[in-house]
UniProtKB/TrEMBL annotation:
<feature type="domain" description="Alpha/beta hydrolase fold-3">
    <location>
        <begin position="109"/>
        <end position="329"/>
    </location>
</feature>
<dbReference type="Pfam" id="PF07859">
    <property type="entry name" value="Abhydrolase_3"/>
</dbReference>
<dbReference type="InterPro" id="IPR029058">
    <property type="entry name" value="AB_hydrolase_fold"/>
</dbReference>
<dbReference type="InterPro" id="IPR050466">
    <property type="entry name" value="Carboxylest/Gibb_receptor"/>
</dbReference>
<dbReference type="InterPro" id="IPR013094">
    <property type="entry name" value="AB_hydrolase_3"/>
</dbReference>
<dbReference type="GO" id="GO:0016787">
    <property type="term" value="F:hydrolase activity"/>
</dbReference>
<protein>
    <recommendedName>
        <fullName>Alpha/beta hydrolase fold-3 domain-containing protein</fullName>
    </recommendedName>
</protein>
């Protein structure tokens, strides 16, 4: 399931008054809906990566582009629980969305995006609610611990502990623990990639691991690295490293808090396959995979390259590139002011999850 780029002609130009207006070189082929949304509501904002994490936490809404988002539809039942985790010992919250019916229900475990630094149970709540209703499955959203207080690899093991806890406690939660899928967006996609390897190695069967605009190789983001073709093979990085909605500097800001602020710390972490999944030692016998990429995303090519590694390992994998849209296009799903591509993404992923869990 692969798409190709569609070139569009855009005649409008960004306002010179807007500090973060879309650059002329990025207009061709860009979704006109996104151009309008960003230049109207995002071009004068201050992005989170332009301030410290301490400043961001004082007023997260001030540094977030939330206009095209929404809370999502009602679902039959929503419950919050705390789950024990081990590395280090503690607890994380999960939010469980349940459809109406007798069950037991298949379950999808979601790991939100936000660079391992930002986000929470509101980040993909609308998507989780849509999946619950449209796919008729339970969805467990994981509020894993984040950096800088909990740096790499804590968030990965938090998510893994939750997956195993769900399988162990499935009966009491009205979950069919033989029908489990996992997935996430951006940082969550990276963790989904890693956890599929963990599952294979511990003989845990997953129906699917879904990677949505995943960060599978961020070595080009290392502190002090001067980006060029010799240290970054991904064309999308060179095309969109200065895209105003998600530049390379934003990725470097995330790594500063997740991996540490020294070159040595970042080099050591980025050489670890749990941080850089393209370096995984064994790609055989992994769960079926679906990878979603966005055309105007600097992480596009590393995600698609990871799909090729999965194919070469003999795994079942599908890939879909959504044309004309940026990295976080899936978030912009407000029914009146969202992106058509976000609604398409909701329909695609809900059908996929229903198919893998119910075999229709």
């Amino acid at each position: 399931m692969t798409t190709t780029s569609v070139t569009q002609t855009i005649t409008e130009t960004p306002s010179k008054k807007s500090r973060l207006a879309i650059k002329q070189e990025h207009l061709a082929g860009l979704d006109p809906e996104w151009i309008s949304l960003w230049n109207t509501y995002g071009a004068d904002m201050i992005r989170a990566d332009e301030v410290s994490i301490e400043e961001f936490r004082k007023d997260p809404a001030k540094y977030s582009f939330t206009y095209p988002t929404c809370a999502g539809p009602d679902v039959f039942h929503v419950e919050d629980m705390n789950v024990p985790v081990t590395k280090p010992t503690g607890e994380v919250a999960v939010r469980i969305y349940s459809p109406k019916g007798k069950g037991p229900f298949p379950v999808h475990v979601n790991f939100h995006g936000g660079g391992w630094v930002l986000g929470g149970l509101k980040s993909e709540a609308a998507w989780c609610r849509h999946m619950c209703n449209k796919a008729n499955i339970k969805v467990v959203d994981v509020d894993y611990r984040m950096a800088p207080e909990f740096p790499f690899p804590t968030s990965i093991y938090d998510c893994w502990d939750v997956v195993k806890w769900i399988i162990t406690n499935g009966d009491s939660m009205n979950i069919d623990h033989s029908s489990v899928s996992i997935g996430g967006l951006s940082a969550g996609g990276q963790m989904s990639a890693v956890l599929a390897h963990f599952a294979r190695d511990e003989d845990i069967k997953l129906k699917l691991h879904m990677m949505i605009v995943p960060a599978t190789d961020m070595r080009y983001c290392r502190k002090g690295l001067q980006l060029d073709k010799s240290n970054c093979p991904y064309q999308s990085v060179h095309l969109f490293h200065d895209a105003v909605w998600g530049p390379l500097g934003r990725e470097q800001w995330f790594l500063k808090y997740w991996l540490g602020d020294s070159i040595e710390e970042q080099e050591a972490a980025l050489a670890d396959w749990r941080c850089t999944p393209v370096l995984a030692p064994n790609f055989r016998n992994l769960a079926p995979a679906h990878i979603i990429t966005a055309e105007f995303d600097l992480e596009r090519d590393e995600g698609e390259f990871y799909g090729e590694l999965l194919r070469k390992g003999g795994n079942k994998v599908t890939v879909k590139r959504y044309t004309g849209v940026p990295h976080a296009f899936g978030h912009y799903n407000h029914p009146e002011r969202g992106l058509k591509k976000s609604f398409e993404y909701i329909e695609d992923t809900s059908k996929l999850l229903r198919d893998v869990h119910y075999g229709v």
